[in-house]
Amino acid sequence: MLQLALNLTLFTAAVFWLGVACWVYRDARRRSRDGRLIGAATLLGLVPVAGPIGYLLIRPAETRAEAKASRLEHEALESWLRREPPHCPTCLAGVEPAYLVCPVCTTRLKEPCAGCAAPLAPTWLVCPFCALDVDAPQAYDLDAALTAEAALRRVGDRSNELRAREPQQAQAS
């Protein structure tokens, strides 16, 4: 019985030892592309107890995927910091992001929101300040529009009558 317990303990220790060595190999592959470095780390991982601890002390801090993500984040931040300030497309004068027109050449840069008058970029579909749909047509007062149209027609009819009377009056004189 004692022999069986000893064999079971040795077997468990061997499986654990090989498992730790396998983990060191896989971790080294995730952190480096250099085959010699991966091999050296795996050999270090095979040294019982001290090997994996030594590997943990000398391994690179980031995996290759983490290093790539960090590099991309730094590049994006640097490009954001290097961006040029906004300028007028016509005269190239510097303008503020909130300007609706260029103060130098009066070129229309942005349209004001119909709801809150905030400057809207041409590509925006919704005003971020008042949540008004930018492409939505304005609500028209139909009664006011018809009244205005009728008034214009009355004015037009009167001017046509006056024009028609002028030749008749000229002939009568």
Radius of gyration: 40 Å
Main beta sheet = 2 strands, antiparallel
Low-confidence parts: none
Indicate the overall shape: rod-shaped
Total helical segments: 5
Please trace the helix and strand order, writing H or E for each element: HHHHEEH
Percentage of helical residues? 55-70%
Strand order, sheet with most strands? 1-2
Give the distance, in angstroms, between the N- and C-terminal Cα atoms: 144 Å
Portion of residues in beta strands equals under 5%
Structural class: mainly alpha
Number of DSSP E strands: 2
The quaternary organization reads as: single chain
Output mean pLDDT.
84
Molecular structure report:
The longest helix is centred in the last third of the chain and has 31 residues. Strand 1 and strand 2 form a beta hairpin. This protein has 173 residues and is mostly helical.
Brief rundown of the structure:
By secondary structure, the protein is mainly alpha-helical. The chain is 58% helix and 2% strand.
Record the SSE blueprint:
Elements: H1 2-31, H2 35-46, H3 50-58, H4 64-82, E1 111-112, E2 119-120, H5 142-172
Antiparallel strand pairs: 1-2
Helix pairs in contact: 1-2, 2-3
Task: List the main descriptive attributes of the protein structure presented here.
173 residues, 2 strands, rod-shaped, 58% helix, two-stranded antiparallel sheet, mainly alpha
